[in-house]
Amino acid sequence: MDDKTVHQHVLDELAYAPMIDAAQIGVTVENGIVTLSGHVRNYAEKGIAERVALRVRGVRAVVERIEVRYPDNPAIGDEALAERCARVLEWDVQIPDDAVTLKVERGCVTLQGCVPHYHQKAAVDQALRRLAGVTDIVNLIAVKPLVQPAEIKDRILAALRRSARDPDTIRVHVDGDKVILDGCVDVWSERELAERAAWSAPGVRAVEDRLTLA
């Protein structure tokens, strides 16, 4: 698919997404790589815009350069924002107590610590992204391996067999706590499914996606 068509499809998909103001987002496409610019009303919209662009057929990657602006909210100091973030993490049952520390600088929240599962690392990001005042999140939380590489591979393959239409086209390699996905898929959603299966395995700290669209 040529870049002009991909560009129009991304614009149309952004306009179709009800939770973002597509008029404030700029889109350029070069060799299937989409660059998003402009500004949004909160940090959560940045993630939505990126996911919307990624699900368009023909998009190879997304470069996100969107700025967060809070037009309707008064400025929130870093100290007050840090207190809000700490409270949200304390209330979230998915996140182990005292597993995560955070630092706030000009609205950018940096997260550190260690958790046993990747979904817990993602839950921290998810819990904070909708807080007013957050302009960016740097998630440096480590995932501590709990199982052996062979068990990680078996769990991922089992998850793919339960969900993928043709799991045999996807190859899984495990190198320590890193998972490498290779092979091909028919649609982008199958690629996302494979990534989710890999990230869901306990002990996985990194996923390298080499899957291509058939």
3D structure, described in words:
This protein has helices at residues 3-16, 43-54, 78-91, 118-128, 149-163, 188-200; strands at 25-30, 33-40, 61-64, 67-68, 100-105, 108-115, 136-139, 142-143, 170-175, 178-185, 206-209, 212-213. The chain is α/β, with parallel strands linked by helices and 214 residues long. The strands form 3 sheets. Strands 1, 2, 3 and 4 form a 4-stranded mixed sheet that branches. The chain is flat, with a radius of gyration of 19 Å. The two termini are 13 Å apart.
Task: Tell me the layout of helices and strands.
Layout: H1 3-16, E1 25-30, E2 33-40, H2 43-54, E3 61-64, E4 67-68, H3 78-91, E5 100-105, E6 108-115, H4 118-128, E7 136-139, E8 142-143, H5 149-163, E9 170-175, E10 178-185, H6 188-200, E11 206-209, E12 212-213
Parallel strand pairs: 2-3, 2-4, 6-7, 6-8, 10-11, 10-12
Antiparallel strand pairs: 1-2, 5-6, 9-10
Strand content: 25-35%
The largest pleated sheet is described as: 4 strands, mixed
Mean pLDDT: 85
Rg over alpha carbons? 19 Å
CATH architect. name of the largest domain = 2-Layer Sandwich
Shape: flat
Helix fraction? Answer: 25-40%
CATH top level of the largest domain is Alpha Beta
The parts where pLDDT drops under 50 for at least 5 residues are: none
Give the terminus-to-terminus CA distance: 13 Å
Briefly note the CATH topology name of the largest domain.
Histidine-containing Protein, Chain: A
* Count of individual beta strands: 12
Succession of helices and strands: HEEHEEHEEHEEHEEHEE
Helix count from the secondary structure assignment: 6
**Classification by helices and strands:** alpha/beta
Number of domains: 3
